[in-house]
Design brief:
252 residues; alpha/beta; Rossmann fold; 2 domains; Methyltransferase domain-containing protein; Methyltransf_25
Length: 252
């Protein structure tokens, strides 16, 4: 990951969540409640959180006594998360690396890919990643994959297409559009500093898949789809025509 992208990761994953810490804490607590319930987690299980970012889910689960490994590419996030794990003496660790290169990892009872963290690569790479994850799941191990539902992209984009919001001392302008020919959300960001200085994001592209497409990819990886939910909250939200999210749970 180049220095410019790492700067943006630090801005969004550290400073943005600090700016909106109360909202982030409430969201994380609700999502961890959801994961505990649907996975019927027990303290002896090993959990892998891929593209763990600032560690919202990793820390939330580890604070409840679960053993969690995280994989994250951005060095500033790895450093901060490692320091936090050490300071709190949590049963967790964070591994610096690309989520597409999992050879050195062991076996897990649960693998999490939350908040549309899968979709930044090619179709072939996404399938290969799912294949590799299946190899790192124990028998009857489970994968939880949270991603945007493209059938409701118009509803999702009403709140996401364009807007300013404060991050730290400055403001971020977000401009997004969905390309139906490629099935991708493409987003540009610009950060305005208090002194008028600006930083421009190199660009973000997320491939969205429909539920039938995800179902096929999961099955090709040798996993059996168990359930799909409309949001990562409790009480359970069914996946239907109004759902902006799709959360798939599959078993090896």
């Amino acid at each position: 990951m180049d220095e410019q992208r790492m700067w943006w990761e630090e801005l969004f994953q550290i400073h943005e969540f600090a700016t909106y810490s109360d909202v982030a804490a409430s969201l994380t607590n609700n999502e961890v409640d959801f994961l505990e319930m649907i996975l019927n987690l027990t303290p002896d299980m090993r959990v892998l959180d891929l593209a763990c970012g600032n560690g919202r889910h990793l820390l939330g689960l580890a604070r409840r006594g679960y053993h969690v490994d995280g994989v994250e590419l951005a060095t500033p996030l790895v450093n901060q998360l490692s320091a936090q794990i050490t300071a709190e003496q949590l049963p967790a660790r964070v591994i610096a690396g690309d989520m597409r290169k999992l050879d050195d990892l062991g076996m897990y009872d649960v693998v999490l890919i939350m908040n549309s963290s899968l979709g930044f690569f090619s179709d072939f790479e996404h399938q290969q990643l799912l294949n590799d994850l299946a190899d790192h799941l124990v028998p009857q191990g489970r994968l939880v994959l949270q991603c945007i539902n493209p059938y409701q992209i118009s509803s999702y984009m009403q709140h996401y297409r364009r807007g300013w919001h404060q991050v730290g001392p400055g403001y971020v302008l977000r401009e997004s559009h969905f390309s139906p020919t490629t099935g991708t959300i493409e987003t540009a960001y610009r950060y305005i500093e208090p002194d008028g200085g600006q930083a421009v994001h190199p660009g973000e592209r997320i491939r969205l898949y429909t539920f039938p497409e995800w179902q096929q990819q999961v099955q090709r990886a040798g996993l059996r789809l168990q359930a799909v939910f409309g949001d990562a909250v409790l009480p359970i939200v069914p996946f239907d025509e109004t759902s902006q999210w799709q959360i798939l749970m599959a078993m090896k």
